[in-house]
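Minutes, project check-in
Item: structure for the 319-residue chain
Input as provided by the requester:
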Amino acid sequence: MSALGQGTSTAPKAVTPPPTSTSSTASSNLVPRGPEAVAKEQPNKVVATINGKPITAKQAADLLASVPANDRKSFGNLQQVLQQICMEDQIAAEAMKENLDQKPPYKEQLKMMRDNFLTQLYLTELINSPAAADAAKKYYDAHPADFDQVNVSGIVVAFNPPGTPANSSKVTRTEAEAQAKADDLEKKIKAGGDFSALARTDSDQQQSASKGGQMGSFLMADNVPADIKAAVAKLQPGQVAEPVRVNGAYIILKLDSRTHVPFEQVKNKLIQKMEVDKYQIHVEDPEFFAAAPEPASNVPSLARPNTGTGQSPSKPSAK
């Protein structure tokens, strides 16, 4: 036996096969999940049946895509979203067969809903108009004071307007008594009295009184009573205005801070406001619009309902 052959085995060695890749096999077995994926792979696949009507993957995906993602979250799952859409679609079709959309007052209500929706669409799209942006910038540059953001505090001294039922308010003082108290508070403040402390003890507006009179902030271009604006416009931070008569009260205002807001922060709102302001009403016959007066509130607010920005409570607006 040769030296080479000593201690060696003549049996063939086992060859280990290279590992096989399972990724391609696994991926080929994956089932598409989700509306978009299933609709792309199998658009004609029936994914649901509602009231006996089959709904294909593409039909369902298109319907679901029409619902904003945030609105989808209000439902428990996608099945409920699809059920709601199809239910409303089919019941609406039944209503159309009955001509309910042509019967008053439904016809007029539908028109108002449609007009409101289209108004919001138009105002939202308007902010992308270069011409509208240029016009807004010119207005912004020509009215710099309108775009001061002011933070104010106030002490509200309410009164009971003549003719107001005695049981409609906890406030019993007359207007003359309210004015006298407001003047007295103003003197105390200008003599060194602590505005915040006096607001806590003497303001009739409980919400701001609990915060030392802090009423928050507003933009000078906002829809705020003219007398309030005029009083605040004259103040420097830390200064206090003379009492201003508002609806059912006298209010002593203090300017806490004033900052100028850059154009980009107000551009969208300004574009919408400029469009809406074109339609401000000019009353020719006040008697036509006369209505029975309502009891005045004894807790006045700085801000009136802002109807000049194109905003709607049911629709998000651009800022």
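Outcome recorded: Residues 101 and 107 are 5 Å apart (CA to CA).
No further action items on this chain.
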